[in-house]
Amino acid sequence: MKSDIPVYDIQNFKAYKNDNILVSRFGYYSKQHQHLHSAHRHTFYHLVFFTEGSGNQQIDFKKFDVKPGLIYFMIPGQVHSWDFATEPDGYIINFSTDYLGSFLLKPDYLESFPFFGGQPDNQVIELPTDIQQKAISILEDILKEGQNEHPINDDLVKTLLLRLFIEVSRTADVKQQKNKNSYNHTLLKSFQHLIETNYATLKLPKQYAELLYITPNHLNALCNDFLGVSAGTLIRDRVILEAKRLLINLDLMVSEIADKLNFSDQSYFIKFFKKYEGITPEKFRKLNTTQNGNK
Q1: Closest listed residue to residue 77, CA positions, set 97, 99, 51
Q2: In this structure, are residues 142 and 123 in contact, taking their beta carbons and an 8 Å threshold?
Q3: Which pLDDT tens digits describe the chain residue by residue (295 residues)?
Q4: How far apart are CA 209 and CA 219, in angstroms?
Q5: H or E element at residue 74
Q6: CA spacing 20 to 30 A to 182: which of 121, 154, 260, 275?
Q7: Is the Cα torsion angle 34, 35, 41, 43 positive or negative in sign?
């Protein structure tokens, strides 16, 4: 029996207006795709707005409540699962990484929204009542457009989708919005991009500071100012996250994971993981694969 965590592509789902987007009422989608309740990954962007239901969900091993008025966003590659206590409903949109590409002048436009930054705490948002009503109106218009028999033109859908992102982003932290165009904010985004590309090989803040042409002290200061954590913590957290993602793939031995993450040996990897997570990699694997229904 295959024990890899499933990875789903946008092509695995029935199309809405074209093969690069799916839009549906969440209650229907949830019933049609029961296998998605257990841990899985996507190769596409994904968002859900709940209007009914309760329970919890995990995004990259962080647990969040499920409740009406809550919207969450996910980027490709993240690990996700649902555990509903009562029947959920709402709206779901899946769209491919290049769905908005031809529509936007800036290829990294989505990354300007905090909820597309890959940090789970920024990806789950409880919307104020007035924004909930705006979100529902936009999502209903997107659903309606899917039933339109006129020749397919996704421009209206893309425009509505971007409006939804903008409306939701306005509920984000005011300080973050105020500083988002500053030089230091640009530096921080560059640092985060570098971590994403190099976390397995570069593990020291001074290595990243050198690539950014700034001092390690400056890098550490801007991480603390914007995020309240050190530069070293950001790097370490990304390494641990990847370790967790790899550990729930039962086909990989712990020694192979240590090698993939460029640890000098398995013993050092185990000590590193236990120091920051409080349990061994094997214990983490057992807890999470059991909870997610793997044998």
Answers
A1: 97
A2: no
A3: 344 677 888 887 776 767 789 999 999 999 888 888 888 888 999 999 999 999 999 999 999 999 999 999 999 999 999 999 999 999 999 999 989 987 888 888 898 898 998 889 899 999 999 999 999 999 999 998 877 766 556 888 999 999 999 999 988 654 354 445 578 878 988 999 999 999 999 999 999 999 999 999 999 999 998 888 999 999 999 999 999 999 988 888 999 999 999 999 999 999 999 999 999 999 999 888 765 444 3
A4: 6
A5: strand 70-74
A6: 121
A7: negative
Give 7-172's CATH code, choosing from 2.60.120.280, 2.40.30.110, 3.40.190.10, 2.30.110.10: 2.60.120.280
Matching CATH number, 183-291, of 1.10.10.60, 3.30.1490.190, 3.90.1150.10, 1.10.10.10? 1.10.10.60
CA distance 51 to 21: 21
- Coil, helix or strand at residue 59: strand
Residue carrying structure tokens 């769905």: 99
